[in-house]
Specification:
Elements (H helix, E strand, L loop, with lengths): L1 H16 L8 H21 L2 H6 L3 H30 L5 H5 L9 H20 L12 H19 L2 H7 L8 H16 L8 H8 L5 H12 L1 H29 L3 H6 L8 H8 L4 H23 L2
Amino acid sequence: MFTIILIMLSGMAAGYLFRHHRCVFLPVVITTLIWVLLFLLGLEVGSNQQLIHALPTLGVEALAITFAALAGCMVGSWLLCKYVSKSTGGRTKKNVTETDRTEEGNPLKGSLIIVSFFIFGCLVAYFGWLPFDPTSIDFSFYALCCLMCCVGFSIGNDPETIRKFRHLSPRLLLLPLVTILGTWAGCALISLVLNGRSVFDCLAIGSGFGYYSLSSIFITEYKGPELGTIALLSNIIREIATLLLAPWMASVFGRLAPISAGGATTMDTTLPIIIKSCGQDLVIVSIFHGFVVDFTVPFLVTLFCSL
């Protein structure tokens, strides 16, 4: 985590040094790296037999919990947008509720391209079309490092970033709390229709906030492998859904929605797509949000597992 942040900061410093030279090709590079990262993520999912075999049974519950949590986050972030706009007399309404109209293309097209790379990666790994084991080398980490370096460079290279950030409302710092409460609300509601899953089971799963490795380990230790597998699937789906649906979320629920949906991942893996969908002026909010939510995961997961 800290390595990724350090790489992004180094990219920002390099971008600032070249701030008088606009790198018009950088958005294309970032988009291409996002596609590569989604393909590699598909390879990881497709090569994990435990995940593939669990999809028909436990996957349904994981999907239900995930999208209930995302619904709570999107509604909560939309309300926060209204609250921020109201507090400033509407002067920042465009900043938090509307996507950047200079962004070319439409959200649906971008999401379809992204999901196609992910599905292709899953198929390649599942049918063994690669002549080597894709999990033997951590390609995803290196791709993510390159992506975060480019993202940092684009931020430092844009002189408008700091100016835009100065106009953001301090009330946006409430976003981590909105994410936590929105996730809990969705998980609590969906627990009413899931047979055999208590409200605390669903809250424990939701409190992973996309941090699937740590949360699934804790839940497996406290509640057993079945609930741990659901937690793993649910939090992986949350990360993938944010990567795939971020443009749509931003256009429908406002630019805070993808950040809230990303949970603990918004300071690393989902940060590039959030910047692309929501704008560079929200990068600090996204990193702050990811750091705070990430910090709460071990405490909240173990709390609900013990109840």
